[in-house]
């Protein structure tokens, strides 16, 4: 790989970090490990071709163009967390992955019980991921930051919202959300 390719890959991974919270290679490898998948199976569940998944993982391509695929990634992240904490068995996870594979990506806030806590309310992380997904489907992180900078002098709270949810890390957005729910 020459210097220009290395620079383009580094730039793509940095964009991925701003859009998805981390480079997609790390995110996808974690999903593969946590859910016991291989790359071909992950690509199939997400609705991507194997070459496209490989390009996203390697940083040859920065952005997932289809919002439904982004939502499937988020659903798999939540599922991996449920498998890790023992609330979902391996068998149930396989069934859920089939449901995720068939999903068209619609709003997860009005979806099935798989996106809610036992009490029926959407999980905070799920709500935050939905907000992030919506903002990031409208504009790139850099554009959201530019908009936030424009709003900051007159509307600092709105500017903070755009920065946190539009370009920040999910953990920071969850903390912001929880801090504003009192």
From TrEMBL:
InterPro entries in alphabetical order: Cro/C1-type_HTH, Lambda_DNA-bd_dom_sf
Superkingdom of source: Bacteria
Comp. bias regions, Low complexity: 103-120
Stored Gene3D superfamilies: lambda repressor-like DNA-binding domains (1.10.260.40)
Keyword Repressor: no
Record bears the keyword Transport: no
Chain residue ranges for the region called Disordered: 101-120
UniProt entry keywords in alphabetical sequence: DNA-binding
GO MF entries: DNA binding
Protein name: DNA-binding protein
Organism: Streptomyces salyersiae
């Amino acid at each position: 790989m020459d210097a220009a390719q290395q620079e383009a890959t580094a730039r793509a991974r940095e964009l991925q970090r701003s859009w998805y919270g981390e480079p997609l290679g790390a995110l996808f490898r974690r999903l593969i490990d946590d859910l016991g998948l291989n790359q071909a199976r992950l690509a199939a569940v997400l609705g991507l071709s194997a070459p496209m998944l490989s390009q996203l993982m390697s940083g040859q391509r920065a952005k997932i163009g289809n919002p439904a695929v982004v939502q499937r990634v988020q659903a798999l992240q939540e599922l991996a967390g449920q498998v890790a904490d023992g609330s979902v068995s391996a068998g149930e996870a396989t069934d859920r992955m089939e449901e995720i594979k068939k999903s068209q990506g619609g709003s997860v806030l009005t979806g099935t019980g798989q996106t809610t806590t036992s009490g029926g309310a959407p999980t905070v992380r799920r709500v935050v991921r939905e907000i992030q997904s919506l903002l990031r489907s409208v504009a790139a992180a850099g554009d959201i930051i530019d908009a936030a900078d424009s709003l900051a002098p007159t509307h600092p709270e709105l500017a903070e919202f755009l920065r946190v949810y539009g370009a920040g890390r999910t953990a920071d957005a969850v903390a912001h959300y929880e801090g504003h729910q009192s």
